[in-house]
């Protein structure tokens, strides 16, 4: 176990990072960002539904966190504290830009994991697998899944991302979003149901068009059969 004197930035725990960042340590700040980047980006992306907007919101949230790190008291985990900042920044950005007609309400009681994380993992390296077709299919499946998650209502979408993709507990999700645990459970259940139904419809549509036959193939088979019959 490394001693404090020999620890590198990678070894620092969240409390040490927060203390060093409050003192203006840029290397600690960089390590904090790298440690929490994916989860916080996904959180912002779940609210804004736009890659570039989510990146901008996350950068603004990081700067706000850096300036206010001295106010972090460790009453919640650093990830929870950061997530709250990102959520607030993303909501403010969404409302300010008026880019969507739907008003985002993450708080309140209104009704409106790991397997999906695996499904949305980095695409398989085609040079390693030697199966570019399979890699392309996985990429298409990932894009479809992302699209369907984007189509979830805002409040459900953010709960789903935190619970299913980031595998946060009910308690952690409730703390991040400032909503009751019962609301987290209900929204997560509804989000999974809506996503499952939406993906099922896409599968049904795909089945209808599988092994397409009408048109050129139909005409070709008929013509060839008649030609063979005429030659008998």
Question: Could you characterize the architecture of this molecule?
Answer:
It is a single chain. The protein has 232 residues and is mainly alpha-helical. The protein folds into 2 domains: 1-104, Rna Polymerase Sigma Factor, Chain: A, CATH 1.10.1740.10; 111-232, Arc Repressor Mutant, subunit A (Orthogonal Bundle), CATH 1.10.10. 70% of the residues lie in helices and 0% in strands. It is built from 11 helices and no strands. Helix 2 (26-48) packs across helix 4, helix 2 (26-48) crosses helix 8 and helix 4 (78-97) crosses helix 9 (170-177). 26% of the residues are buried.
Summarize the structure.
The chain is an all-alpha fold and 232 residues long. It is built from 11 helices and no strands. The chain has helices at residues 14-22, 26-48, 51-68, 78-97, 114-119, 126-129, 132-150, 154-165, 170-177, 181-208, 216-230.
Q: Give the strand content.
A: under 5%
Tally the helices: what do you get? 11
CATH topology of the largest domain: Arc Repressor Mutant, subunit A
Q: How many runs of DSSP E, i.e. beta strands? A: 0
- The amount of helix comes to 55-70%
Determine the CATH superfamily of the largest domain. Answer: Winged helix-like DNA-binding domain superfamily/Winged helix DNA-binding domain
Structural class: mainly alpha
State the distance separating the first and last CA atoms: 86 Å
Q: How many structural domains does the protein architecture include? A: 2
Uncertain runs: 1-5, 99-127
The average pLDDT value, as a whole number, equals: 79
Order of helices and strands: HHHHHHHHHHH
Biggest sheet character: none
Given the C-alpha coordinates, what overall shape results? elongated
The CATH class label of the largest domain is Mainly Alpha
Rg, nearest Å: 24 Å
Mind telling me which CATH architecture of the largest domain this is?
A: Orthogonal Bundle
